[in-house]
């Protein structure tokens, strides 16, 4: 009997040792894989430096054509389909890749979307943000060559564009009778005409030139292309305050928001939004913004079209508070319908519902879900974002009301679905 017990104890010990060794081996394999991936990354960086030092410089035209070929290859051979199988998605990232198994980069990326006519607006946006930007560009099939060429030139002529901006192309599936996805290359390159790039602008709105513009799909595509801990989703015709990214990173570091135990914290940081008259130089600081508000050249975002859509931001209280030495939160706001603030959040917040297209309820539906899911809305003291141009009823396409009514029906269904998705939540979108 004693021998049997001793035998069982020995077997049990050996079993534990075997399990421990198996675990150790598995961990070592993971570490080995991570180290190999890191080594490959270092080799690629070294090769890039050596290539830069030894290769003769090439003309902008040649470099632009090279990038054009890479873009074309990505679009043709490395694209994915959206969940409905309606659109193809091609992600273009010329920057360094994130190592395997690594955590999100402790940074905040600016996330935006646009139709191809508004790509040039990314130039001023990248200059103001000075950090990672992820943009999803919607392009119809017949415009693909022009878009690829414009992107190639931007990446050639503006180094910060190539280094900081991740571009995702979203387009309807090409017609089956087309022999090629992309038309032949356009011959007129006009490489690095910087003044032409920065001055070019199109006054038309996305909704007026594209049927069923998939804004929420574009936002999700751009967010998924980010590898940063935080994201700031805005429209492409907006500009953030100066040093917003750097100030927020300092704020996040001081509050310990970049530590692992904060990853599940349910707080989003509201950035008050304003709109400026045409040709008004966008303010850099809160002091400059307050001066422009006092002269009537700047006002709260959507103040004419839908003042209640931004009213909970408490603009008067925010404006009466002088700029602080450092970024901080001023106050928390309880969400109420139809508030749709712009905010900085972790990239794990709920995605946008892709059923919403064109105008109406596309952003508010996502903010509504944040509220039901238990998120807190904290308004930042110094940060702001400015829309370039006043929002008026005449600035929208003629089918705006029809779009809004169609999306209103989807929003009703969406709110009913939230009750089932967050069955334990007492919050509702009223």
TrEMBL record:
<keyword id="KW-0479">Metal-binding</keyword>
<keyword id="KW-0472">Membrane</keyword>
<keyword id="KW-0808">Transferase</keyword>
<comment type="similarity">
    <text>Belongs to the glycosyltransferase 49 family.</text>
</comment>
<keyword id="KW-0812">Transmembrane</keyword>
<dbReference type="InterPro" id="IPR043189">
    <property type="entry name" value="B4GAT1"/>
</dbReference>
<comment type="pathway">
    <text>Protein modification; protein glycosylation.</text>
</comment>
<keyword id="KW-0735">Signal-anchor</keyword>
<keyword id="KW-0328">Glycosyltransferase</keyword>
<keyword id="KW-0464">Manganese</keyword>
<dbReference type="Pfam" id="PF13896">
    <property type="entry name" value="Glyco_transf_49"/>
</dbReference>
<keyword id="KW-0333">Golgi apparatus</keyword>
<keyword id="KW-0325">Glycoprotein</keyword>
<keyword id="KW-1133">Transmembrane helix</keyword>
<protein>
    <recommendedName>
        <fullName>Beta-1,4-glucuronyltransferase 1</fullName>
    </recommendedName>
</protein>
